[in-house]
Amino acid sequence: MPSPAERVAAALEAVPRTGFLPPGQRAHAERDEPLSIGHGQTNSQPTTVRQTLELLAVSPGDRVLDVGSGSGWTTALLAHLTGPTGEVTGVERVPALVTFGAANLAPLGMPWARVERSLPGTLGWPARAPYDRILVSAQAAQLPAELVDQLAASGVLVIPVAGRMLRVRADDDGPAVEEHGWYRFVPLVADPPVESGGAQPV
């Protein structure tokens, strides 16, 4: 059976970064650096994507949550790793990027993957929980209990927290946390809850 690293390498070959970048950035797709996708967000450095996906160790058939899906690239990579027996939900807070990511994903013919707009005041996508794997592509100030609570038994969350990449496994005695190096990401932000009678942010 292929190792997680071999499976991730195959996914990166099968789902090129180029198709998930704005036209003006596509010539730079081979650069090993973050690239702007607008709205203050980036398409992550390929080395970072590879490392986080290896830590996540997705298996065929897994139910996966992709928080901060941005251009949809990680959502597509995760869908390749789960295969059609799995399910991948990408969640993004910027409406224009929800549209962009969904449009990038559509031509790949992966109906088991989709991109949703995040709900005000909510991290993740509790409606489809629990998840076998959760990937977060934005930095939190501290480990969000709300995302840990969306893990299945023995599920794994990979998330940058205060500059460190954490691999969190849901155990019976509570989350088991490992640290895996220093990283820089855009901040993890949840839209505030909608006030009663107020308008939902757009």
From TrEMBL:
Its main location: cytoplasm. Keywords: Cytoplasm, Methyltransferase, S-adenosyl-L-methionine, Transferase. Pfam families: PCMT. It is an enzyme of class 2 (transferase). It is found in: Cytoplasm. Belongs to the methyltransferase superfamily. L-isoaspartyl/D-aspartyl protein methyltransferase family. This is Protein-L-isoaspartate O-methyltransferase. It comes from Pedococcus dokdonensis.
